[in-house]
Amino acid sequence: MVSNLKTSAVQYCKRAEELKKQLNSKDQAGDGNQVTKSKSGKGQSRDDEADALKASLGGAILEEKPNVKWDDVAGLEGAKDALKEAVILPVKFPQFFTGKRKPWSGILLYGPPGTGKSYLAKAVATEADSTFFSVSSSDLVSKWMGESERLVNGLFQLARERAPSIIFIDEIDALCSTRGEGESEAARRIKTEFLVQMQGVGKDDGKRVLLLGATNLPYSLDQAVRRRFDKRIYIPLPEPSARAKMFKIHLGDTPNELTPADFEELGAQTEGFSGSDIATLVKDVLFQPVRKTQEATHFKPLRGKDGKEYLLPCSPGDTGAIPATLQELADQNLADKVQPPMITKTDFEKVLLRARPTVSTRDLETYENFTKEFGEEG
């Protein structure tokens, strides 16, 4: 048994030497530029490698602002104030931060899905006069050994060069989950590099870099990563007043008959709904007039504000009602004359009968427990 192992080891060593000779011969047969680069020393090749890493991360820089203002974010006043402290004040009023008063270097936004964490990040990107990096796990994870760590290092290095800057990592738990015995060596190295870089983000070198993380799974974060976030802000489900504002925002300038009191009532009726739940609900409501038009059997002429005459779906008993279907009007080349009716509160009530919130009570208890242990209310 021992002799067989020794024989195999000798064969593997010989094979390794042969492969090494083949690789060396291929390198020598390469083009002149490759030979020159290898002769010029390791420093230049490392610089080229760093430039290549930065070029690959260039796509993470948000060149165009998302055009989301603070006022577009309904509620979450505590979270907005904390972000203004961390993002706006240090850039516009650097004289405020002297002595021991230092800006926040890391903020973690956590809470149920669809509560506005990523939307807050868009507002930060719009309002802040800083370079904004929007990063996901796919930007930093590579199948090549050691490449992921270099990407993480390159990201923070590039952020320091473009300071003041903000690094936003959505679903940060995918990169920095709790370390355990079953995880791969590559995942462990990525977390280690993150911890090293996060430790250096807040150092007093004049390079203003803020790390902004968002997660739906705060308990999944590694405790060392969690500790490096100065502020951990809970983004809860919206309050009734915030939900009423969301209905207005998502409805926009679509023609409707709703009054301010109607919006307040809708906000009260949607307890437990997240921001994304309301967005989906309103999207369903927006199609209600289209469905009415498709199902209509009668239309009546109506003069619009522009002076043109339009055809509106109506009841058979309405004055001036013309028996026709949408398809028949299209066959008569009158499709451009058809207008859907205005949205009413009845449309919302009809959709509310089948709408359901997506966040469970058990999920909310988990976030509230985390807030008691490690976080603060947003």
Walk me through the structure:
By secondary structure, the chain is α/β, with parallel strands linked by helices. The chain contains 16 helices and nine strands. The chain has a six-stranded parallel sheet, with helices on both faces. Helix 7 packs parallel to helix 8, helix 10 crosses helix 11 and helix 12 crosses helix 15. It is elongated, with a radius of gyration of 30 Å.
What's the layout of helices and strands?
Layout: H1 2-28, H2 32-39, H3 42-57, H4 77-92, E1 106-110, H5 117-127, E2 131-135, H6 137-140, H7 147-161, E3 165-170, H8 185-201, E4 209-215, H9 223-227, E5 231-234, H10 240-251, H11 260-269, H12 275-286, H13 288-295, E6 298-303, E7 309-314, E8 322-323, H14 326-331, H15 345-352, H16 361-373, E9 376-377
Parallel strand pairs: 1-4, 1-5, 2-3, 3-4, 5-9
Antiparallel strand pairs: 6-7, 6-8
Summary tags:
single chain; 378 residues; 16 helices; 11% strand; alpha/beta; three-stranded antiparallel β-sheet; 9 strands; six-stranded parallel β-sheet; elongated
